[in-house]
Write a structure and sequence with these properties.
Blueprint lengths: L9 H17 L6 E5 L5 E6 L2 H4 L6 H9 L9 E4 L5 H10 L3 E4 L9 H6 L3 E4 L3 H13 L1 H8 L3
Parallel strand pairs: 3-4, 4-5
Antiparallel strand pairs: 1-2, 1-3
GO biological process, one term: nucleobase-containing small molecule metabolic process
Keywords: Cytoplasm, Hydrolase, Metal-binding, Zinc
Protein name: Nucleoside deaminase
């Protein structure tokens, strides 16, 4: 995963996000990864959920990828690829900056604001990759308190 490298297919893009999710898990964090791409497939930035590692409640995978992409003149032609359906916070980021497309690796473990995004003109593609579903399911089963903290549940 090198910033500036081109990833042609959704599967290649999702592999970048999945590698980030595994990195987060290896660090003892929540296994969610994301990456932001230009319309031609150029990787602008990638990241993973760092809430545990950084002690920062705002550092979700999508916000970490967005942060690592740096300033862009416009986000209208960008694609956010995420291993898990974006929560309302991250869905708000997509809408605020006009990201035009979102690719979701798993919306069975958690369903965030992706329907709201689609209703408001964002192109949403759901993959439901069995490996990502299994990884998230295992994490939720093994760490229910941490998962509930991440999604704002008591």
């Amino acid at each position: 995963m090198t910033r500036g490298e081109i990833y042609a297919t959704d599967a290649e893009k999702l592999a970048v996000a999945a590698a980030e999710a595994r990195a987060g898990a290896d660090e003892g964090g929540i296994p969610i990864g994301a990456a932001l791409f230009a319309s031609d497939g150029t990787l602008l930035g990638s990241g993973h959920n760092r809430r545990v590692q950084d002690g920062d409640a705002a550092m979700h995978a999508e916000t970490n990828a967005f942060h690592n992409a740096g300033r862009q003149r416009s986000y209208r032609d960008t694609v956010m690829v995420t291993t898990l359906s974006p929560c309302w916070y991250c869905s708000g980021l997509v809408r605020q900056f006009g990201i035009g497309r979102v690719v979701v690796g798993d919306d069975r473990s958690f369903l965030g604001g992706q329907d709201w995004l689609a209703e408001n003109g964002v192109e949403v593609t759901v993959v439901n990759d069995p490996v990502l579903i299994a990884m998230m399911g295992e994490f939720i089963h093994e760490h229910p308190a941490l998962w509930n903290e991440d999604i704002g549940e008591d």
